[in-house]
Backbone:
């Protein structure tokens, strides 16, 4: 997919503030610091589009980026940032949960998982929460440049064997590195193919 134009549209505090133009949305969620903003920047080839940081807790609002006036990429605040106050953590979780569950335009919720780690309860519980609400989910493993290919395969196996306790059919997944641009074409092709299938669906109505 060739992206010609990317525009930051707005940052919102709640779903009522989000853009109202009903374009399809691809949303990115995951633990704070997992690499959501970096991944969006990789997809659109612009390192400065979404602010990133080596410290967790950088993205604190719902950020809408419009691609070629066709669809949105949505960068969300992360969950599980240990140093945030309980009040703040609950505020962000509520904001994100409300946005994701009430939205009528999210076509895929990408849940990002740090490929270096053993399965984390918090990731599994968010996957289960949104899965039970029938939100279409794909998994994106991040930071694959940090471990070797043997460990990548091992960690993915371990992750899916843990997930199989609650999922009969696991979500489709992608392996990425925003540093090395691994997985960029897979993800952009996937987004493009979902976008085309929606367009065709709309035409056939
Ligand atoms: P919050 O907004 O705080 O929730 O974090 P985030 O999930 O948006 O993470 P962000 O993109 O800000 O990245 C966090 C840190 O991880 C930064 O220091 C990035 O440079 C680093 N990072 C992100 N993706 C990768 C990757 O694929 N490989 C490596 N090595 N580092 C990465
Ligand atoms: Mg971020």
Residues:
């Amino acid at each position: 997919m060739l992206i010609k134009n990317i525009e930051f549209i707005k940052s919102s505090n709640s779903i009522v503030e989000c853009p109202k133009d009903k374009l399809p949305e691809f949303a990115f969620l995951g633990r704070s610091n997992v690499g959501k903003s970096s991944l969006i920047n990789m997809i659109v080839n612009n390192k400065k589009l979404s602010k990133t940081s080596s410290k967790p807790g950088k993205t604190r609002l719902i950020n809408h980026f419009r691609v070629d006036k066709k669809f949105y990429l949505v960068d969300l605040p992360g969950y599980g940032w240990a140093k945030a106050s309980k009040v703040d953590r609950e505020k962000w979780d509520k904001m994100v949960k409300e946005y994701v569950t009430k939205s009528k335009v999210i076509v895929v919720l990408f849940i990002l998982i740090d490929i270096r780690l053993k399965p984390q309860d918090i990731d599994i519980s968010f996957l289960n929460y949104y899965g039970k609400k029938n939100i279409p989910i794909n998994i994106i493993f991040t930071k694959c440049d940090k471990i070797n290919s043997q460990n990548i395969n091992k960690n993915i196996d371990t992750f899916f064997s843990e997930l199989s306790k609650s999922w009969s059919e696991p979500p489709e997944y992608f392996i990425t590195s925003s540093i090395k641009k691994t997985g960029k074409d897979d993800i952009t092709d996937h987004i493009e193919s979902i976008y085309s299938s929606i367009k065709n669906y709309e035409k056939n109505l």
